[in-house]
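Hey all, quick one. A colleague (J.T.) asked me to put the pyridoxal-5'-phosphate job into the tracker so the inputs and the C-alpha cells live in one place instead of scattered across chat threads. No bug as far as I know, just bookkeeping. Sequence used:
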Amino acid sequence: MNYEQILKEYNNIKAKGKKLDMSRGKPSPEQLGTMSRLLTAVIRNDECFSETGTDCRNYGGLDGINEMKRLFGEILNVPMEQVIVGGNSSLNLMYDTVARAMFHGVADDCKPWGKYEQISFLCPVPGYDRHFAICEFFGINMINVPLLDEGPDMDIVEKLVAEDDTIKGIWCVPKYSNPSGITYSPEVVERFAKLKPAAKDFRVFWDNAYVLHHLTETPDYLADIFAEAKKYDNEDLFIEFMSTSKITYSGAGISCMASSPRNIARFLEELKFQTIGHDKLNQLRHSRIFRNLEDVKEHMKVHQSILQPKFQLLYRVFDKELSEVEGVHWTKPNGGYFIAMTLPKGCAKRVVQLAKDAGLVLTGAGAPFPYGKDPDDNILRIAPSYPSLNELAEAAPLLCYCIKLAILENEQNAQK
Ligand SMILES: Cc1ncc(COP(=O)(O)O)c(C=O)c1O
C-alpha cells in the first residue's frame, strides 16, 4: 500500500469514532471476574482468625499473618521470616522504602540519602515509568543503562557502581520486564549477586512483579537472587518486591517485600511509625483461597488462558502488516503484560498522536524512559491485557496504519 491508501484506511477507521484504550497494563474485567470466591472467603465473625489465633479484624501484625508470609516466602523462595506483607500495592512499598532511605538511610553507619547533595539511581531502559516517577519525585538523578536481551548491560552497571559512591540504587524488573518482557539470565543474576558497589548504602530494587505471570508453555527461568547473593555474603544489597495485583485484584490484592534478616529487622523498626499493621482480613481471604504456591500456579493458568489469545492476536496482525516494514520489531515475551515495539528513530511520538486522533489511546511515547524522554523516540509500550479480543481486533490494524503513516511521514520529511 502506498501513502494515500494507508491514509485512506486510517481515515476510514478514524471516522468511525471508536474509543479504544491500550495505555495501561491493567487486568481485564474478565480476569478480575475469575476471583469472585475471594469476595466471600471470610464472611463470619468466627472465621476472622489466623492460624496463630490473631483476630484479623483488630490492630497489630506489622509484618503480616503467618499464612501470607509463608505463601510469599514460597513464591519468592525465601524463608517466611524474611518477608514483610504490605497493603494492596508493591509500588507503595517501593515508594516508602525510598522515602525512608531519603530520611533515615539504609544502614546504621550510613547517612540518609537525602543528606547528599545529589544521589543517582541506575535505570535499565526501557523500564517501568512509575519507578522512574518515584526517583523524579524525590529529586534522585536517573542514569539510563541499556536493558539488553539478557538483562541490564552489566559491564556498565559494574563500572558505574564501582566508581561512583553517589549511585545509591538500581531499578530491576528481573522477570518478564515491563515493557520488553525479557528475563535476566543466570549470568546476569550472578553478576548482580556479587556486585561490589562503592556506596555502602547501595540497594537493588528487585521488583519481581511478574514472577508467576507466564504467557506460554515455555516460561522463562529466573535464578533466585537471594540464594545467589548468599553465596557472596551480599544479601543486604537486595530488596525484593511483588504483589498479587495481577493474580487476584489489582486494586485490592496483597503486596510484600523480602530482604536479608538485617534489612527486614531495620524495616520493621521503621515501619512501626507508619502503621500499626496492614489489612489482615484481606491477607486472610487470600490465604484461604491460596493455601500454597501450587494453588496460585493453578490460578495463573486461568490468567494465561485469557491473556495468551490477546498477545497472539496482536502477533498475527503485526506479522501480517509489519513484518516487511524496515526498522520495526516487536518482542514476543513468554510472560508479563507488555509487548515492546521498536520503530525507526523519531516515530514513536507521532504514532501515539495518530492513534489518539483516531480514538486509540496508547501509553505515552517516552514513558518507559526516565523523565519521559526516549532519546531515540522509537519505543512503544503495547499493553494488550485490558481491551477485549474484539476491541483488540479493531485496535491492532489501526495501530499498524499509524505506524506505517508515521514512518512514511518521517521519510518524506527527511527528503525535504
Ligand atoms: C514492574 C511493575 N512493578 C509494579 C507494578 C505495580 O504493582 P502494584 O500493583 O503491586 O503496586 C507494576 C504494574 O504495572 C509493574 O509493571
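Adding what we noticed when we looked at it: Residues 25, 89-91, 128, 173, 178, 207, 209, 243, 245, 250, 255 surround pyridoxal-5'-phosphate (CB under 6 Å). The mean pLDDT is 97.
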